[in-house]
Amino acid sequence: MLALLASMPALAESDREVVENMVTRSANVCPGHSTERTTPTVKAVPVGALRVMLERGLVMCPDRRLDADAPAAFYGRVGVFEWNPEVKESTAVIVKQIDAMTRKDDYPQDTLVWDAKGQPLKQRTVPAFEAKPGAAVLYHVE
Fold first, then answer.
1. Predicted local confidence at residue 4, as pLDDT
2. Do 57 and 139 form a contact (C-beta atoms < 8 A)?
3. Residue 61 belongs to what H/E stretch?
4. Terminal-residue alpha carbon distance, the chain
5. How far apart are the C-alpha atoms of 112 and 142, rounded to whole Å?
6. What's the whole-number average pLDDT of the chain?
7. Which of 41, 73, 89, 119 is the most exposed place for a label (fewest CB within 10 A)?
8. What residues contact 133, with CB distance under 8 A and at least 6 apart?
9. The pTM is what?
């Protein structure tokens, strides 16, 4: 019984801690991270989706290199969701995609790109994802 109680705090992270953990992961991995750019979008993601992302090693990265007509992307090979924080609609688009993908627990290996209305774009080239120097993306799917 004591062992069970000792393990409970790890399982019972508060919603605030979950948000902080995702912002910290972004700070460690994303070259475009700043608290002002990252936190509002992370807070817009349902906490249950953030929990799945943290468990799977998925990351959220703001990236101002993404074009206004293609402001959101998922880099499947490395498990990174990116959005352009300067494109107002990109937050809603990436939040919707994260919510849908974490509910299905389905993360294709391809790079997926969406326009500002959330429509998938085919054959669209986006800048390659580049982690901060020395950062490791610990993405895994079970």
1. 41
2. yes
3. strand 59-62
4. 29
5. 20
6. 89
7. 119
8. none
9. 0.87
Rounded Cα–Cα distance for residues 54 and 58 (Å): 6
What is the Cα–Cα distance from 104 to 102, expressed in whole angstroms? Answer: 5
Tokens of 51: 């929990």
Instruction: State the burial class of residue 94 (Cβ atoms within 10 Å of its Cβ: 0-12, 13-18, 19+).
Output: buried
- Counting as low any pLDDT under 70, the low residues of the chain are 1-12, 136-142
Facing residues of 112 across strands?
74
User: What are the φ and ψ backbone dihedral angles of 89, each rounded to 5 degrees?
Assistant: -70, -20
Q: How many residues does the chain have?
A: 142
Distance CA 11, CA 13 (A): 6
Quick one: pLDDT at residue 101? 97
CA distance 3 to 24: 29
Please tell me the predicted confidence (pLDDT) of residue 12: 66
